[in-house]
Amino acid sequence: MIRQLVSGVLALSLVTAPPSDARALVPQVSTTVVINEILLKGQFGETDEFLELRNVSSVPVDLTGFTLRFYSSNCITTATVTLPQDTVVQPANSLGQYVVVTGLNFAGEIDDQTYVVPVLDSNDLMPTKGGAVSLHNLHGSRVDTVGWTPCLKEGGPARIPPQGLSLSRNHLSRDTDNNRTDFTSTPQTPGAQPAV
C-alpha cells in the first residue's frame, strides 16, 4: 500500500465577509466530490476535528487549488483552506478516494492516508454551536456544502452530533442537497466509509 502524506504550506486566511457572501451561490447536487464526513469536536476539544472529502465519480478529480470555506453560525467566513498541489482524488471505491483535512489537535486514526491535509495554524474551524463549510472549485463555484446552522445549508441544516461522533453521509455518499437527510451522527471513520 502506498501512503503519501501531502506536505507543504496550506493557504489559510482568516477573513471577514458579509453574510451575503455565503449565500451568493445556489447549490447543486454534487456528482464528483462531496463533503462526506465532519467531526466538529473530538475528545480533545474544539481543534480535535476533521473534514473528509470523497470522490463519488468514476474518474480521478484534480482538487489542486480548490478551497474549503468555513463559516460561523451567522454565515461570516472565518477561514479559507486551499488544497495543495497534486491533490488528485481517485475514483470511488479505490485507494486515494478521500482527502482528510485535520484540525490542530486531531487525535484520530485515518484509514486511507493518501491525502491528509493538516491545518496547523487554525482555531476552531467548525464550531459545535453552529456553522457551515463549503467546497469551491477554481472558479469559485460551490461544489458542495454542509451546514449545521440555518444560515448556510442545503435543504434543512444537519443535526449537531454529540461530542465525539461525526456527521456522515451514508455508505453510498448520497447527495440530495438536503443536509438534514444526507447526514447522520455516526462513530468517526476518517478515510473510510461508515457502516450506515
Automatic annotation (TrEMBL):
Region span, Disordered: 154-196
Record-annotated LTD domain positions: 17-150
Record-linked Gene3D superfamilies: Lamin Tail domain (2.60.40.1260)
Cross-referenced InterPro entries: Lamin_tail_dom, Lamin_tail_dom_sf
Bias type Polar residues, positions: 181-196
Domain of life of the source: Bacteria
Entries under Pfam families matching the protein: LTD (PF00932)
Coiled coil regions in record: none
Protein name as annotated: LTD domain-containing protein
